[in-house]
Write a structure and sequence with these properties.
Number of domains: 2
Helix content: 10-25%
Strand content: 15-25%
Strand order of the largest sheet: 3-8-4-5-6-7
Shape: globular
CATH architecture of the largest domain: Roll
CATH topology of the largest domain: SH3 type barrels
């Protein structure tokens, strides 16, 4: 299973939920061990259809990169799109956030609190003296370290 917030991949059978919750045995949610985000468990039938669609749909093969989440990794076998840091966008360019690559829990919490999530469209407004970008209707001013931890792909 892959977390929708931080992109961390984990096995949902070993992921622990809220141990203090009295309903943790019958709960239909899984908690990401990296960021703590609650994800609903996937329906078996839905999972089967999703896997079939991913394998047969566009002829893409997902490959594991030796350094997951680093800029320049290939997302598909045909090389249609590569992940790059948000700092590589020029003024006025748009892209889609593909992943948030940070090892620091505090930075991840800051990015999530701003509403910067994978799948959201982002537009670079300004690069100098500080990065200003827009996600949805929110404009964010950020330093280079924060901007480099947000990976995007152009469409």
């Amino acid at each position: 299973m892959k977390c929708g917030f931080c992109g961390y991949e984990f096995d949902e059978t070993t992921a622990q939920g809220c141990a203090s919750c009295p309903l943790h045995n019958t709960c239909s949610k899984v908690r990401c061990p990296n960021c703590g985000f609650d994800i609903p468990k996937e329906n078996r039938l839905f999972g089967w259809f999703r896997r079939r669609r991913n394998m047969a749909g566009k002829g893409e093969m997902k490959s594991k990169a030796p350094c997951p989440g680093k800029p320049g990794k290939e997302e598909g076998h045909q090389g249609a799109a590569t992940a790059a840091a948000l700092s590589r966008l020029n003024n006025g360019e748009e892209a889609v956030i593909s992943e948030i690559d940070t090892g620091d829990q505090g930075t991840l919490n800051k990015i999530m609190a701003l509403g910067i999530l994978p799948g959201e469209r982002v537009t670079m407004i300004q690069r100098y003296p500080t990065f200003v970008f827009q996600v949805g209707n929110t404009r964010v001013t950020a330093d280079e370290n924060l901007v480099n931890s947000i990976l995007i792909h152009k469409q």
